[in-house]
Amino acid sequence: MSTIIMLVLMVVAFYFLLIRPQKKRQQEAVKMQNSLAPGTRIMTTTGLFATVVAIDHEDVILEIAPGVETRWVKAAIGRVVTPVDAPVDSTDEVDDDVKATVDGDVPVKNDTDQDQSTPKS
C-alpha cells in the first residue's frame, strides 16, 4: 500500500514541478506571440533582433535592416524587446598618448602606437 502512495506522490510532484510550469511558460509565449503588432521590436529564438512590419495569420514579416524584410513563423519569436537607454560607460576617458606600463616601468605598445612615418600596407 505504501508503494502505491509513494508512486502517486511522485506523479503529483512531477506534475507540479515539471509539467505545470512548462505549460504556463508555453501559454505565456503564445499570448505574447498573439499580441504582436506592427512596429514592435522583437528578438527571435535564434537571437535575431528585428521590427515587426506585418502579421499574416501564423507568419510575421520582420524588418532586420532598413529595406530588408523576412518572413518568420510566430513560434520563432522569442521575446519582445523593450527599449532602454544606452548604457553609460563609467570608465574615465584616457588620453591616447598615455601608454600603460607593466610593473611600473616597462611601456606596453598598443597596435595604434605605430610610427606615423612608416606606410601602412
From TrEMBL:
Q: Cite the entry's keywords alphabetically.
A: Cell membrane, Membrane, Protein transport, Translocation, Transmembrane, Transmembrane helix, Transport
Q: What topology does it adopt in the membrane?
A: Single-pass membrane protein
Q: Return the Basic and acidic residues bias intervals.
A: 97-112
Q: Which GO terms describe its biological process?
A: protein transport
> Where in this protein does the record put region Disordered?
86-121
Subcellular location(s): the record lists: Cell membrane
A GO CC term?
A: plasma membrane
Where it mainly occurs, coarsely classed, is membrane
Indicate whether Protein transport appears among the record's keywords: yes
| Sequence similarity | Belongs to the YajC family.
Name of the protein in its database record: Preprotein translocase subunit YajC
